Input
Amino acid sequence: MRLFALGLLLCFALTGCGGASATDEDDVTTPSPTDLVPTPGAPPVPMEVSDDQVGTEFTVTPTLLRAQTTPFEAWSPLSGNRIAVHFVTGSPECYGADATVVETPSDVTITLRTGTLVSAEDKACIMIAVYGTMVLDLSTPVGDRKVLNGA
Output
């Protein structure tokens, strides 16, 4: 076992165990594990999808227990001054969602919160992921504004 550990250390010290280096012929670099980690605090940018990408409908529920900011994955422009946000949460029998919207001329920032419904506080809830959709009202249509996660 000692010889194996010594050999492994020697391998790392002398050759990097075959990993690409900046001096290789084709100058290939391998990303480090930290390059693959998202920047802390940076919410994902949601993508626009067609309005037929509807999940289980959630209505705005401002009174939630243990509510947490939840990034939404996608959004759809709807007719008039409405937008649908699409997100993953728990079963609608136990979980609800709420959102705040901040609009500027250049973007629409939506902060989505999900949590336990007050009516489900003492219920046994199944742990299942549900693709949810919630329709929100805007002061003006989305138009060409950027839609952002406030999470």
The CA atoms of residues 86 and 133 lie 5 Å apart.
